[in-house]
């Protein structure tokens, strides 16, 4: 089986490429390297540097190879930046997906796995959040993902391209041996930022300590990146058996950890005391975001194996302190 992975030089894409190769797939990676890192791309994969906003470049990739499936990770992901530059997010995240889908339609490729986000839900009215929860994204990033979700059923109806949409909650962690981990050019995620504060001996800014939670800080559902890769493999296998579907799944654990629990876990793993600097809540931050994961468990037989807090934080620490 030959598959195309977009954004395969990024954090989640890099793990996905490694997992697919280990499972015997032939993999082509396409990435512009604007946000990704070429050294992340597994040497066993074919690598194509291209901007997915370039329709001709995308078309040429599909003319060069026949792909049994496409896993689409490439996107801008900063909620904050999307509020400052919404056009950048709609142009890249939506147009790139459309270019890929058009190329798939022309080439006759039928299986599309889409990397989406819990951000499509906005501030939830029901927790744990089910897939049929109302979609009210609170920023252009979440809205751009929701627009692609709305486009996909039309490509199924018109061209027979089946898709499975995976809505991530909070991807975290690193390889068990510390050989691959999370890196972003502009890091916004809490675990690497807490670890960074320890390593640089800086204070850590904590936004909001008065939420209606057990310790007053935000609670989020964290999924280890290895478990996330497993969810994609299961989704791809399911779609290739029955590609006339458009399905939506949350990918999380159904459990949440607070910001304070994250800080405590990093202190425990590192043996270092973290100095916390308290700030007011950030506008739009929900108190609790936890996934209802019954659908992916029942339909794809998915079970998270590495998403306990100790494994997430200890593997992240191993990656960030590697020699």
**Rg:** 19 Å
Q: Tell me the strand order in the biggest sheet.
A: 3-2-1-4-5-6-11
SSE class: alpha/beta
How many E strands? 14
Query: How does the major sheet shape up?
Result: 7 strands, parallel
**Rough outline:** globular
Average pLDDT confidence is 96
Note the gap between the termini.
36 Å
**What fraction strand?**
15-25%
Helix content: 25-40%
Element-by-element helix/strand order: EHEEHEHHEHEEHEEEHEEHEEHH
Structure in words:
- The chain is an alpha/beta fold.
- The protein contains ten helices and 14 strands.
- The model has no long low-confidence stretch (mean pLDDT 96).
Compile the SSE list and pairings:
Blueprint: E1 2-6, H1 11-22, E2 26-31, E3 46-49, H2 55-64, E4 69-72, H3 79-84, H4 86-107, E5 111-117, H5 140-159, E6 162-168, E7 170-172, H6 190-199, E8 204-207, E9 219-220, E10 222-224, H7 225-241, E11 246-251, E12 257-258, H8 259-270, E13 276-279, E14 288-289, H9 294-300, H10 309-320
Parallel strand pairs: 1-2, 1-4, 2-3, 4-5, 5-6, 6-11, 7-10, 8-13, 9-14
Antiparallel strand pairs: 9-12
Helix pairs in contact: 1-7, 2-4, 4-5, 6-8, 6-10, 8-10
